[in-house]
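Let us work through a complete example step by step.
Step 1: write down the sequence.
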Amino acid sequence: MKLSILGARVIDPASGLDQVTDIHVEACKIVAIGAAPAGFVAVDTIDAKGLVAAPGLVDLNVALREPGYSRKGSIISETRAAAAGGVTSLCCPPKPNRCWTPRPWPN
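Step 2: predict the structure and record it as tokens.
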């Protein structure tokens, strides 16, 4: 399938790109940013004016609420919410039980 995403603000820190332009996709791969390649005819288009297209985002401090707080959210609900917002990678630092208090080192 060939897809054109039109008028998105494309941000790519790796290449230093930050501009409003078009993205052309074929077989789930970006084949061009800007003008469509020769012979490219999009089967579908997306009007992305006012939207941002960027590589997947990384959340460096996420609380997945398991174990212990699954009544507030679960790994499934939290990762689905992250994906809906463009977050493709999560870092979940350990969080000890709130009742735990560190003990002083023995002398």
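Step 3: interpret the result. The chain is about 10% helix and 35% strand.
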